[in-house]
Design goal:
Layout: E1 2-6, E2 21-23, H1 27-31, E3 36-40, E4 46-47, H2 49-55, H3 58-72, H4 79-85, H5 96-102, H6 114-131, E5 136-141, E6 144-149, E7 156-157
Parallel strand pairs: 4-5
Antiparallel strand pairs: 1-3, 2-6, 3-7, 5-6
Helix pairs in contact: 3-6
Length: about 160
């Protein structure tokens, strides 16, 4: 699958809020964000929502999720965090106080808000995918389906 990123990027590094960069399968969408860069990934290098929730071994997914929760200092037993990270439930549809409490430790040093909690959930989803051996993970955002491309992937100018 060819993915596009609008902005100045060559190699994805393990830094920043998301510890990766977002890309789109739509050249026009990505191009609206700046200079167009592209990368070609095989379908088996991209973790899809369907695969994460229905095809992969549940124990492997749970182990990766628990490891990421430990790194983020959040409760791996929290149904809310599982739903937000693995099932990609929209935290904006959840009780705000519960979301802020669940993601509190992962937001230290950040503006603790429902929006930040949503971004933390995306970052955690990316880290779960990374632990499972993927180079990118499918997500839903304001552009529809986008992909969080993980560290080590190299983009080229389009």
């Amino acid at each position: 699958m060819e993915l596009y990123h609008g902005g100045n990027i060559s190699k994805v590094e393990d830094k920043g809020l998301f510890r990766g960069i977002f890309a789109s399968a739509c050249e026009e969408t990505a191009g609206s964000h700046g200079d167009l860069h592209t990368v070609e990934l095989n379908d088996d290098q991209i973790l899809t929502d369907y695969s994460l929730n229905y095809e992969l071994d549940h124990d492997e997914v749970k182990a990766a999720f628990e490891a990421v929760c430990a790194e983020e200092s959040v409760d791996a037993e929290s149904d809310l965090i599982w739903e937000a990270v693995i099932e990609e439930a929209d935290v904006f549809d959840m009780d705000e106080d519960e979301v802020l409490e669940a993601f509190e430790m992962a937001m230290i040093g950040e503006d603790a808000s429902i929006g930040m909690a949503s971004w933390v959930a995306q970052r955690m989803r990316g880290q779960v995918a990374r632990k499972l051996g993927y180079l990118a993970v499918e997500m839903d955002d304001e552009h529809g389906t986008s992909y969080l491309v993980l560290p080590g992937v190299e983009f080229a100018a389009a």
